[in-house]
Amino acid sequence: MCTTTNSPETIERLKQYSDRIEQLARDLGLDYYPVDFELVPNNFMMEIAVYGLPVRMPHWSFGVRYIHQLIRQGMGHSRIFEVMFPGDPCRAYLVNGNTLPENTLVTAHVLGHADFSKNNHLFAHFMEMAGGHILEQAAARAHRIETAIHEYGQERVEAVLDAALALEPHIDINRELHRPLYPAVKPRAAPEPEPDSFQKRYRQLPGEKPHADSHTTTRRPQVPPQPEYDLLWFIANYAPELEGWERDIFLAVREESYYFYPVFACQIMNEGWASYWHARLLREADFLPQDLYLSAIKAHSDVVRPYAAEKQLALAVNPYHLGFSMWEDIIEKHGLEAARRIVKEEDDFGFIRNYLTRDLIEKLELFVYEARDDGDIRISENNVHAVHEAILAPKFNYGAPRIAANHMHVDGSLQLLHDHQSDGRGLDLGRAERVLEYIGRVWRRPVTLHTVGERGEARVVTSKRI
């Protein structure tokens, strides 16, 4: 039963089980766009996981991530069972090196993801903006970038990609993907000073032409008119010397960021929902052989276990375990229809704050910890608010510091501002300097970032003059 899913016989058996699981899912009320399943080798699955898409714009940073993932997998710390891309249709990739029971479970898991992505308001909204054919769009962008490399050279294209990918999470999720430029400021009438008595008598002399009451002046608009948090959009549209192909790269990275945002913002809900449904579908799939079912349930237990490896101290939340436990609790207390309403209306912020109760926190033994300088770990608190915010803090603002383009000076130099008060997250100044260098190369004017240091003192990071 531990045979991998890469022989004609096991592939055919998986297809038969998958077809019947899909029918069972429909019978139980799951509603999703069609799912295209594909079996792929492990190395290709790793590339998908690292690049985020089967075909994506080439960049050295993805190679670094690939090596990191390869090391983690070799050490037994990371294993990828599947990758699913929401859309119409959805695209799901399964590893052919998985066993038949594992891929049977993964099939059911994917259907849970597909149901969630179709019915959740955040997924629906962002899919409407970014489109439901991300794989085809990403492949077309990758082709355009390859063309740019041949035309403009590897070094120039890579410099643009460095800046765009360094700013990948810096979008404004409260703004539309396709948004207009700032409104132009119309010329305004400037009133003339009130004439004195001599000027009044002079204008009344015979033959004098009437004097205009006012004249118009053009006021230079402030750019941006207010702090702009969508840095990818701002640079694409307002960098003083950005060429068309460079602008296209920034907008391509931005569009992919919009597509991936719901996956990031609903991770706990989404993985928990998919885990709840794969467990239920397997439990009700009486057509599965008993030994396959037991092996699949063992895989389920490994996925939703609260702790990593054999350690009995969890220093990070397993989204599968937390989400699965929360959905089970919600459905047991409020019913499946209430759970479906939550799927539609919430993201992880509302889900955690509204439905991770004190009882569940104690049952799951969730806590906030502090790492001391001597390396010891100390539990600091386990009250509801502290646990909620500890889970959600890394999700704020797409997991990135809250940085705004604050002012573009007459000479084209750019001032960025770190909103550290609402951000609640400090800056790694070394990393900030590197990112600023990337931005400076495409902005082609000095760029400064105003932030604070560890003690709250004002700090200014400046790019080199390009």
Describe the structure.
The chain is an alpha+beta fold and 466 residues long. Among the domains are: 311-400, no CATH class; 401-466, no CATH class. Helices cover 53% and strands 12% of the residues. The chain contains 19 helices and eleven strands. It has helices at residues 8-27, 42-51, 60-74, 100-119, 121-130, 134-152, 154-166, 197-203, 231-238, 244-265, 267-284, 290-303, 319-334, 336-345, 348-355, 358-364, 384-392, 420-423, 429-443, and strands at 35-40, 82-85, 90-95, 188-191, 214-217, 368-371, 377-381, 403-408, 414-418, 447-452, 458-462. It has a four-stranded mixed beta sheet with strand order 8-9-10-11, with helices on one face. A three-stranded mixed beta sheet has the order 1-3-2. A hairpin with a 5-residue loop joins strand 8 (403-408) and strand 9 (414-418). Helix 1 (8-27) runs parallel beside helix 4, helix 2 (42-51) crosses helix 3 and helix 6 (134-152) runs antiparallel to helix 10. It starts with 7 loop residues before the first helix and ends with a strand.
